[in-house]
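Bug: token stream looks shifted between consecutive jobs. Job 1:
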Amino acid sequence: MANNPPPPRDPASTIPTLPKIAVIDLWKAFRGKEVLRGVDLAIAPGESFVILGGSGAGKSVLLKHLIGLIQPDRGHVIVDGEDLPCAEPAVCLQIRRKFGMSFQEGALFDSMNVFENIAFPLRRHTRKSEAEISARVQECLEAVHLHDVGRKATSELSGGMRRRVGFARAIALQPEILLFDEPNTGLDPLTSAVIDDVIIEMRERLPVTMVTITHDMRSAFRIADRIAMLRDGKILAVAPPEEFRQLPDPYIQGFLAGEPLEEEVA
């Protein structure tokens, strides 16, 4: 049975100056099992922020809270000063439009070709002409170095190409915040490095804040300005990559070395 959480905290007392995203005392349980247990995070504008954690740590659940796909049991997700869980529906919609999300393995529509996948959000959420949509799709494909695949079926794409098409679709509406859900899962090391390079290039060229969840250590240290470790629904530590490597926490050091603690294999 879940333990009773401590009393809620005043969000105003914990928000740093002008974060792009502030997560404050966030709790979420499913069928009595606590998945998030008082998560606190502050992500700066323009930052590439990586959330590390093992399977079942709550990474995907936390990411879905950031974009408002899940309502917390308690706590706050504040985006540009607006508290997403408490926002009116119209305000909530405006906040969500600041986000672009790349799902695991691309999550492309197999019934559409590459061009149609990227054009989909433009047709649904804008009044652009077909000529304008075509130009924007091409810009997005060029941003991920796939300028000549627009007419390909999604079934013709490799795993790495699917991820990059997913990135192109995520930036189609020129979001302020990009969320990446396990962008390297299932990829070989060389393809994973290409994906990292594309993320780094987008960070440098686009005016966006990035949040990536992953368990891939090599990728995390390549793309992150700061890294957070999530374990059992709590944030253990947040630090820039080189400082993160030196943190004394035994779980973090075991995670870095690929060596589980005895309590996790007992």
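Job 2, same session, no restart:
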Amino acid sequence: MSDSIGVLVVDDDIEIADLVEIYLCSAGYKVYKAANAKDGLNLLEANEIKLAVIDIMMPVIDGIEMCKRIRETKNIPIIILSAKSADLDKIMGLSAGADDYLIKPFNPLELTARVKSQLRRYMELNPNVKGMKDDIIRIRDIEIDVARHKVTARGKDVGLTPIEFDILRLLASHPDRVFSTDEIFEKVWNEKMYEANNTVMVHIRRLREKIEADSRKPQVIITVWGVGYKVEG
């Protein structure tokens, strides 16, 4: 699956960028490197890139701002690398549109595994398939076309990232069932949640901003206080 898939690595620390390149190339990916966000954005526009690995602390344009700019036009997976481990920094990264967050120093094998996981989800949810039987989920004024990875809200197309789409599909496929944040994390990210964090909460908030008529008064994704989240059937 990884053969010739383009991955962008943006980090002003050359040694880290080179290390990431070595591991990702060994896994079969085609790596594009940039030492700053401006060059990274140019590479993204000029090449067929399916995932971006971005450092937060960069001069001029930081990783948060770069993430926001990517999200204006693309739904590719974004993994943020940062020396900052505070919850607020994680929330900022995820709120800007990142799908995953890895704290420096990190294990290159773990990064490679996360790249594979994010790309598997992205490639599976964006197939170029013709003649596939429609698989449509309808909840209130939301329509989820599973086969085409397409969501419409009140008749208008909604651009979701692969993670956002997975969360919505999970909840909408089991109307009225309440999922805890741990369950959502384990089913969507395909790994155990070993410590409490705000990852799911941030993605739910971002998802609501895209699909709810009023994200402050959600009618589609409902919070069940002290338990988790559900979609009402």
